[in-house]
Amino acid sequence: MKQEILTVKEYSDFLNNTIETCVRKNNFLISLKGVIGEIEDKGYQKYYVPFYDTQDRNIFLQLEAIKNLLKTEYSNKAAIISGYPSLNNFKGRPEIKISVSNIEIISEIPQETAKQEISLIKLFNKKKNDIKIFPVLNDKYKLFLIYPKSAKTLPDFKNQIRDIDNFINLKEKNINIMDANEIKQALNDSVEFNPNLLVIIRGGGDSSEFSIFNDKDLIEKWINIKSFKISAIGHSQDRTYLDFFADASLDTPTDAGIYIKEQIELIKEKEIFNKKLEENNKKFTNRERALITVIILLIITAIIIFFLK
After folding, report:
1. 3-class secondary structure, 109
2. How many helices (H) and strands (E) does the chain have?
3. Is residue 16 within 8 Å of residue 89, measured between CB atoms?
């Protein structure tokens, strides 16, 4: 059976129609719990505001509500909303929108926490397109490593990069990884070193131990560092804002070491290949020149012989 080939537009239309059919089929009143985003009065009759999930602030829906129902003082507050789902086609992309019929403000989520997390989401949205690629260097890589005082994370990491020691200038910073001020100071110290790679590692632990890596001031300092940033501060279930704002986020210190080793080895192999290719091109060019010279000499010789006859 021959597979049907669709254009991008045809496939996009198919997805839109499928979602729209599903939404219309299940067009019933629903109630959702979450955090209301920043409400800005732009002079319209209705507000269009993001409604964030209480656990994962990267997941949100769009709320549509009249001004009398959704008030500006509800910004960044936890709420239970009731409404009807509908499809909003934004620039060719289907988005689920909730037409709000009722809002109940709740106190389940502390307001300061909600404001901080919404603020971090805004930072993330601004920075998410600022994607860096692993730096390509001819010289040694300057690597600044931040690691905890009491753990085996350091050997786990260093054992993976020992084969590329000659390509790395490593500076280590041993800190209390549970102290936000020590982490911030370590980040300040890294700026003086001006590394190509900034790495922060720690082992796994209780989920509550990772809240420090969601601190807004710490994240802002982390974001503003220009180096290629790598985080490995827990296992796969321990995701923080520091991970989101890293250029590469790995599960463990061992994984971080493997990642750096593979990237540098790949770059160095490419350098060697390019050098060989350049040398071969030079050799080939020299052969071409020699061949052209021989041909010209043969032609000149043939002309001279012809005239001598």
Report:
1. coil
2. 7, 10
3. yes
As a whole number of angstroms, the distance between CA 35 and CA 55 comes to: 10
Backbone angles phi, psi at 186, to 5 degrees: -65, -40
Regarding the domain with residue range 8-118, which homologous superfamily does it belong to in the CATH classification?
Nucleic acid-binding proteins (2.40.50.140)
d(CA 192, CA 187): 9
pLDDT tens digits along 96-151: 788 888 888 886 555 555 555 556 666 666 565 566 889 988 789 999 999 998 76
73-85 pLDDT, tens digit each: 888 888 888 887 7
The CA distances from residue 22 to 32, 64, 221, 239, in Å, are: 18, 20, 44, 32
d(CA 168, CA 199): 13
* pTM metric for this prediction: 0.54
268/137 Cα distance (integer angstroms): 9
Domains of the chain, by residue range, sit at 8-118, 129-309
Please give the DSSP secondary-structure letter assigned to residue 1. -
| Backbone region of residue 131 per phi and psi (left: phi > 0; alpha: psi in -120 to 50; beta: other values) | beta
* Residues whose CB is less than 8 angstroms from the CB of residue 3 and which lie 6 or more positions away in sequence, other chains included: none
Q: Which residues contact 40 (CB under 8 A, 6 or more apart)?
A: 72
CATH class of 129-309: alpha beta
Tokens of 49: 């505001």
Contact, 57 vs 81, CB < 8 A?
A: no
Instruction: Tell me the β-bridge partners of 103.
Output: 81
